[in-house]
Write a structure and sequence with these properties.
homotetramer; 413 residues; alpha/beta; Rossmann fold; Argininosuccinate synthetase, chain A, domain 2; 13 helices; elongated; EC 6.3.4.5 (chains A, B, C, D)
Chain lengths: 413, 413, 413, 413
């Protein structure tokens, strides 16, 4: 039996970015719950220094032993991004799940710290209309069923930017000058992507203003000469660029640079949130976009048709599970087992041409290639493929259709 | 009971392009089967004049009443291409099925003519290693279960280019100069695409030489300024470009022009054939690539999540059916019913930016839009969405995960 | 924009059974919301007289023009049960969805009456832990997006049987003697089934006591001689028993009699509720169990393999949608379009042997049969099937497996 | 590159039952291919002595070192039957795949022996119209890509029973008296099932004559008192009956006895063969039928909903793969990985009532049960489930449906 804890929490671990919003939450937790606050700040490659977050936490009265800061970049890419890319996962056909895939890792760390420090609650700064609250909380509940989750945006009565600023001022929370006004859009970022949504992006009929992009230059500004690169793969994961072995996070960072410089990975999308409404977002996934193309290319010569089609078939569901926050669910793990089973020989090299926003496969090779030039040659030689087999193959495939045709004829249809 | 006809056919309808290969087939049929040959030549937008095909058929002794020539472009786009694009169909993630979708239409016409002229057989020029033989023949068998299918490439003993040329010379079949030697690659084309494969394309590690492309200029040669266009949709089908209503075939032709000029729609692919081997092909689908992006965009604001995800889920199977030649199968028709059911309100306008090989959605709007700005606004107003609902939503979604977590805890895992 | 109505409702339509619980709800609505209550009582074949419900509503102060009573049996079977059985729907492999399928119809009627009488709210007696609340409310919201749904069991503070009885006594609600105490289990019933759950059924290790069953005699008590029947189908729906044409509801009632007498259709199940927990229920679906077996049997000779397998593949999802309450969703309607498309020739006769809980197919015949004795005869005749075709069929199906085998060999695996 | 061997084989391994048909094949191979024949006879629980097979092989001139006889019963159940039952596999809704699952094991052994004795070919006695030829040969080609497969029934010109008998007489092959005439039906049997098809079973409108059944008594002849048994499971596999631990094959044999005595597991079916036609078969799977019910029951309390529904969803495809002969394919292995991943905690006990053809679950319990009585109790206590959460859960699930409803209203639909 799972006991419902009442809301008198003693210690809460907060996913703390060091920014204004989570600083307000930090203070609000102290006041509202009169509890000890533990902060957790992770480097997932969002491109911000973590030092200031520590300073700010100290300033807001967090005890040094309650401040947790961790560089998760390698774990993030190795254990979350790469497994997901093995699946060629894309939500609603195109979204590479850059935000979705980071949440379970942060949630998991929150719970690990909660277990370590004996906290009974966790808290996060995701709003009440988005998917991220779901992703954080499903993770937390899955890993610590009796945890109390505090989602301030769903609980407090701070209803506007003005009220937030007033609260911050009242509690001596430092406010950066550019944070006083309403942000024209909100951003999430990690090593895989940056996403923006809200305000100036809310009308899906209007083109995304150029100033919203932060991770890529525009295709128009990209070089007039294509860039050629080679990516190597082993058991489905990228391991080297242009022959240079790189760790997962370093490799993705390198691909991000390549993508940024060639205007690659911008996506303007109206998507369906798990909580039931449509939203319009802008995503930049420079390295991920390159990686996705390359992974399909190496699979194209190393993966059997049956395996490849099965993967394609279950992919939308796999992507939906991640989007909806079910990373730590039995069904995601089962699908992962299926996917991973297929990747043993997904190894070799893919050559790509990057040009003004485009990623074009121009070559692939592998010691495990299933592509057999002899089999596809038009002229027939002493090979396994006998043209006459095709007749029997077609005849038996046609048999049920002929029977149906016969019925139609009989019925005069 | 379906009777097997023996091979003493009286009249055969041949899918005749007027080119050297099908001219050889024509003659070979006359000789080998000693039967009357009826030719069928279709304009599917392959970009060739049909007049010469008639002349050549006459020259080869086909009676005028046995020469059938038909412009199928509108039927092709309206009844085959558009229904398929409603599904966002892509084989193995990327191939837009340009060749696959034309075969059932040609096959259907062959059978219609066979019924009209009282022919007992049909014949085609597809080779014994490819998918097209399957697509032609499944169609033929489905629509006329007792038809005899003659596939010369599987039957004759002409084993090399030299032998083919010798046969042609022996039988006074005119040979264009550039057809004497082995072609460096083979091409299939229609209004939706051109595909090339074989010879110079056979090594998947080698980049496709530029001279292989016929339908698009290279992204590098495309204009330095983006082209903006608007496509209108009704019930899932494109109906206008930049506000100008166009018939299906005219619209696709216009998109092809736009795509060609902007270097859009090139695809270098290793794919899995139905007959069991991998092959490497190069596809150019300029207009189709634009259309595919636009269709997903108009769906993004007009299609409900449940409908959209169900479509995504069944898409790979739908695409595989078309690729494998099962257009005229009950399961394709069932999936089409499912897809078409979803398209009633897929209407509105999509604005696109075409730039050097890229197709970027920059706006979409619809009188049937399900995107509701009030629902996604961050600040909460007097709207349907109550932040507190999210708590319950997450709690019940988490319940089974918590129960699982509880079990793990109990077991000390 | 969907406005959130506040809870000051003016008129509410209540799904009213005439029983104690919904009578208490009726009174509670009057008191709590100070609003006009409209009652709706439906005959779905639950086996209770509707007259007393009218009397009781009058007694509780409902105006005659606010009392709606309707016989929905034919509509229920024709438009809900039969379409579902076309899909061979079974939740979690076995549950024939007897409760689930009735809820959307009741919900739809509630909304129709609400529109007619100008009510702004609907109410029901489903508890806060079950699936039925979801089914009622998803239906209501889908059909009238601005409706207020009042779910007393989630709102009131009546926390025990004693408190309910006290409330009833306080408000002069008549209490049948056997309703004073806690019921040993709760029952839902309609023409398709009766279900029981709770209390005495809560331990899934304990056999269901015999007194819980109401719709069937036990297999042990059933006749020692089998009963043979024939069911005729047209376009996927049953139309006659033993040659006698019957309306949908009459036919199902007749099958219920046959099932009851032969101990057919008992199911003891632990299932997964949509709201996240497992529950143990006992179902009796006598006629439905017979119908399900018969429908698969008529499909077995009239449905093509491609169609049949596609149906099998999407069935679990279709069943889940109905179980979860999404009857009025685009995805259920899309799946229904797919299913219905397949049923055109699902017609003919099925002969069944009913014996002590078992339903055994012993024969099927159809003017549309695709079963062709000539095709399956072992000896080969002048038929469509040439044994040698099988060699080519197998060879090409094996080609990719051989290529894989070759790779393994090359790698020394 | 896979070389096509020509048909000059040196040594062939034959799947040899010792019966008349495979004895004729043995002789025919010697004569036709002038090659050394190696026989393989397996005990899969078909219920026949293997000694006579050895004697007959010797009599027909097979060298002792070329006679292989193996008891595969434990391997069959442990590595084939049990993994398949973890999936709850049923082809076309009902067929438990008793024949299909045995073929890959036999095929694998043929290849193992071929490798051991240096044979270049294998042969089997499956006919050219059935599924078994496909299952044998796909297995053989997958495991030894360069093997030659000899399928006499597709090659020879023995076209009738008379010709077979004449051939046997001519070559001194002993003929049992009852084998002279045409068998009224053909049988396949192993530890999992017996199947019968052909001749007297060919009219699907006619009830299966009682003499066709060999593994079960009829329900009518079964005891008038139910038999209660308990089956224990560990990681998804049955391990004990009534508390007595049994090896896989022993356990299945015991269940067969129980099933036989209670008239359980008869199935009269028209199914769709992979080779394209429908066929009518009769199956007896006494123990398997009990096992299938028990496995679902133990899963019902130990498997999470997400896991269970995913399994249900992929099951038809998994079953089809086995039916079609793709046991040794990457996609079957991927699906198996998915399935096996789910079975870790599928452990506990299921109590069943066996009665006159019926298998009824009457209890299940497990140390890993996810069924939580506190969660489903109607009265609310201090538990995890808060009734009010349901309101939010429903609201957000309804949100997209309300938006759709709003659109309809706006459009006046």
């Amino acid at each position: 039996m799972i006991k419902m804890t009442n809301k008198s929490v003693k210690k809460v671990v907060l996913a703390y970015s060091g920014g204004l919003d989570t600083s307000i939450i930090l203070k609000w937790l102290q006041i509202t719950y009169n509890c000890e606050v533990v902060t957790f700040t992770a480097d997932l490659g969002q491109g911000e220094e973590l030092g200031p977050a520590r300073d700010k936490a100290l300033l807001l009265g967090i005890k040094p032993e309650n401040i947790f800061i961790e560089d998760l970049r390698e774990e993030f890419v190795r254990d979350y991004v790469f497994p997901m890319f093995r699946a060629n996962a894309a939500y609603e056909g195109v979204y590479l799940l850059g935000t979705s895939i980071a949440r379970p890792l942060i949630g998991k760390k929150l719970i690990e710290i909660a277990e370590k420090v004996g906290a009974d609650a966790v808290s996060h700064g995701a709003t009440g209309k988005g998917n991220d609250q779901v992703r954080f909380e499903l993770t937390a509940y899955a890993l610590k069923p009796d945890v109390v989750v505090i989602a301030p945006w769903r609980e407090w009565d701070l209803r506007s930017r003005e009220q937030l600023i007033a609260f911050a001022e009242q509690h001596q929370i430092p406010i950066a000058k550019d944070k006083r006004g309403e942000a024209p859009f909100s951003v999430d970022a990690n090593l895989l992507h940056a996403s923006s949504e809200g305000k100036v992006l809310e009308d899906p009929a209007q083109e995304v203003p150029d100033y919203v992009y932060s991770r890529t230059i525009s295709p128009e500004d990209a070089p007039d000469k294509p860039t050629y690169i080679t990516i190597d793969f082993e058991t489905g994961d990228a391991t080297a660029i242009d022959g240079v072995k790189l760790s997962p996070a370093t490799l993705l960072a390198k691909l991000n640079d390549l993508g940024r410089d060639n205007g690659i990975g911008r996506l303007d999308l109206v998507e369906n949130r798990f909580v039931g409404m449509k939203s319009r977002g802008m995503y930049e996934t420079p390295g991920g976009t390159i990686l996705a193309v390359a992974h399909r290319a190496i699979e194209s010569i190393t993966l059997d048709r049956g395996a490849a089609h099965l993967k394609d078939q279950i992919m939308p569901q796999y992507a939906e599970l991640i989007y909806n926050g079910f990373w730590f669910s039995p069904e995601r793990e089962m699908l992962q087992a299926l996917i991973d089973k297929s990747q043993e020989f997904v190894a070799g090299s893919v050559r790509l041409k990057l040009y003004k926003g485009g990623v074009h496969v121009v070559g692939r090779s592998s010691p495990y290639s299933l592509y057999d030039q002899d089999l596809v040659t038009f002229e027939e030689g002493a090979v396994a493929y006998d043209h006459r087999d095709a007749a029997g193959f077609i005849k038996l495939n046609a048999l049920r259709l002929r029977t149906l045709g016969q019925r139609k004829k009989k019925l005069g249809l």
